[in-house]
Amino acid sequence: MAYKERKVCLSGSGLTKVFGFGLTKTVAVDHVDFSFYEGEVISIVGESGSGKTTLAKMLLGLINPTEGDIHFQGQKRDISTQRKRLEYWRNIQAIFQDPFSSYNIFNKIDAVLLDCINMRGGRSFPHAKKVEMMTEACSFVNLKFEELTNKYPFELSGGQMQRLMIARIFLLMPKILIADEPTSMIDACSRATILDMLMGLRDEIGMTIIFITHDLGLAYYVSDSVYIMEHGKFVESGSADEVILRPKQAYTKRLINDVPKIYEEWDLSTV
Predict the structure, then answer these.
(1) Residue 158: pLDDT band by 50, 70, 90 thresholds?
(2) Whether 127 contacts 154, CB under 8 Å
(3) What domain range includes position 80?
(4) Looking at residue 64, what is its pLDDT?
(5) 12 has which bridge partners?
(6) Is residue 210 within a helix (H) or strand (E), and if so which, with residue range?
(7) Distance between CA 268 and CA 29 in Å, rounded?
(8) CA nearest neighbour of 164 among 141, 146, 184, 181
(9) pLDDT at 185
(10) Where are the alpha helices (DSSP H) in 206-249?
(11) What angle do CA 61, 90, 32 make, to 5 degrees?
(12) Does 94 map to a domain?
């Protein structure tokens, strides 16, 4: 993606998260530095336990760093009060891998979407305007609002629920979206559809997207920049072509070599 002017929207310096004390101490994220730009698509790639989801939770403000700073739009992030947290969350949202756990089971789809409109200052809008906005958001993700009204999210398929999550993002229009393994629990056909919708949303509102994934293929397909994470550290970063086609670090090379190739016979004896 070409940038007229690269503006940093989210950055971190020396970001660290330690769990436990003494012999039980675990360093989940270990002094990482990064700069993510407006409109950029970033993938943070690593195996389970590499620290990528813990990093995502710190970026979202769900857990506090042990050390280091996060800057949002050039200012040190301050989420010390509930009001400041809510303001920050208007600008940074997330989609998680399990769509079934992302919704309040007692809220109907109408309430889910109305809450997004209210968060963006539309509480006083006329009812007809709100219906128009919800219809447009559902249409963007190939859902029909009139078929969803008065239903609960759990009445939808996994792919439909993820599309509904994207409709929420369409209404909220955050500056940053963190997508934590957003396609890992849905079928292959829905996976491509979800990715295309996310990229369309990036183009529609100029949003920065941060993918948290173990899937190098996905990272190469969608990303401008890729960060490889091992044992809580970024061991390699750069453009998708640089990192995946011309890797420098042994860990990155191993991740690439571990990706099954359809033109090679798989050795299942080690499985």
Answers:
(1) confident
(2) no
(3) 8-101+175-270
(4) 95
(5) 34, 70
(6) strand 208-213
(7) 33
(8) 141
(9) 67
(10) 216-222, 240
(11) 35
(12) yes
Average of per-residue pLDDT across 32-47:
96
Pure H helices in the chain: 52-60, 82-91, 109-119, 127-140, 145-148, 158-172, 188-205, 216-222, 240, 250-257
Q: Is residue 108 one of the residues assigned to a domain?
A: no
pLDDT tens-digit map of 195-240: 888 888 888 888 999 999 988 888 998 999 999 999 999 999 999 9
Q: How far apart are CA 168 and CA 176, in angstroms?
A: 13
Whether 113 maps to a domain, the answer reads no
CA–CA separation, 85 vs 171, rounded Å?
Answer: 19
Q: Tell me which residue of 92, 113, 89 sits closest to 177, measured CA to CA.
A: 92
Q: Provide the pLDDT for residue 270.
A: 54
What does the pLDDT look like over 244-262, one tens digit per residue? 999 999 999 999 887 766 4
Selection from 132, 215, 218, 209 nearest residue 171 by Cα: 132
Whether the Cβ atoms of residue 232 and residue 176 lie closer than 8 Å to each other: no
Domain count, the chain: 1
CATH number of the domain bearing residue 209: 3.40.50.300
- Beta strand pairing call for 225-230 and 41-45: parallel
Mean pLDDT of the chain: 89
| Residue 19 within a domain | yes
- Angstrom distance (rounded) from CA 45 to CA 180: 11
Q: Supply 13's token pair.
A: 């310096």
Task: Quote the CA–CA distance of 38 and 73 in Å, as a whole number.
Answer: 9
User: Distance (Å, rounded) from C-alpha 234 to C-alpha 237?
Assistant: 7
pLDDT number for residue 194:
82
- Residue 16 DSSP code: E
Is the separation of the CB atoms in 16 and 67 below 8 Å? yes
Query: If we measure between CA atoms, which residue out of 257, 259, 221, 254 comes closest to residue 240?
Result: 221
